Amino acid sequence: MKKVMLILAAACMTAAANAKILRVSNVSGSSAPYSSIDAAHDAAKAGDTIMVDASSAKYGGANAIYDITKKVVIIGPGYWLVENGVVAEGSSSAYIRILNLKTEGIVVKGMDIGTLYVYGAKVVINRCHIGELSFSSGADNGVVSQCYIAGTPSGANYIQMTNNIFTSTTVNTFLSGFNNSYIAYNTFRNKNVQMYSVTNTTFEHNLWKEIKNSNTTNSLNDNYSTEIINTQATNDFIDKDYLALEIPEDIINKYGAFAGDSPYVLAGVPSGPVIQDLVVPTTVEMGSKMNVTVKIGMVK
Questions:
Q1: CA neighbours within 13 Å on the CB side: how many for 135?
Q2: Nearest in space to 45 (alpha carbons), one of 19, 65, 67
Q3: N or C: fewer beta carbons within 10 Å in the chain?
Q4: Measured between alpha carbons, how far is 287 from 2 in angstroms, rounded to an integer?
Q5: How far apart are alpha carbons 90 and 271 in whole angstroms?
Q6: pTM of the predicted model, to two decimals?
Q7: What are the CA-CA distances from residue 157 to residues 34, 140, 142, 149 (Å)?
Q8: Do residues 74 and 109 make contact, with C-beta atoms less than 8 angstroms apart?
Q9: 1-57: per-residue pLDDT in tens?
Q10: Are 142 and 163 in contact (CB under 8 A)?
Q11: How many beta carbons lie within 10 A of that of residue 2, not counting itself?
Q12: What is the chain's alpha carbon radius of gyration, rounded to the nearest angstrom?
């Protein structure tokens, strides 16, 4: 048994060592080796990471549809970076109109997505700005965390949705198709939360005005209802405005997207190491070393 475990461990380390990072940018003059997400996806193998640069232009154009059929990690820069003071100027996101996740185990972080369809199981969606979110039948065991979701999500079985901000273009936020799921530490900024075909699902530590639950198999534990969060619910606003609302500190620290162990992160900047400062000399004498100073920070 020990021999088998050692072989498996060695195989895992080999797979990790062989994983690649493929950088994509559609900005003219960029040094990125790929100018389209499709090209990077075609070159990627399971376990690889596709890094998508910020751009003022939509990736693939206004009508692009991307199908992700490999178990990869897709990482964007976040969204509303300028508005939330993360960067002083420049592009604010990496935008895709329609993204279809068609195999299991895909991870998407820090992207700006018009419509996100999930077809594969065990998908992780983290710190993204999403218009519409839909899990198809069989897309079970998914995780959606620290996202800003402007549409009305539909779920599947065993979905975990935590520390998200929901604001719909309609008066209410409609939840449908969630079964045996866990929905906690979310802020719903619309008038009501309404459920359709939601069963055996636990709701706790959410912040909303009112929830309409007609199924007694669902469990509602220690949620908080308040009128205040609906102040700008129908507007397309930047998320830092949430902090300006007059919600008592003891409430905002216990309920909603900014509470719990994994609070919502302004601007959706993905977790992990980031380059905070880079100093490169403009000229170096022939044969001399080039001293480059890099300051690395960690986003939690």
A1: 30
A2: 19
A3: N
A4: 52
A5: 21
A6: 0.85
A7: 36, 5, 8, 19
A8: yes
A9: 333 433 333 333 334 457 899 999 998 888 899 999 999 999 999 999 999 999 989
A10: no
A11: 6
A12: 21
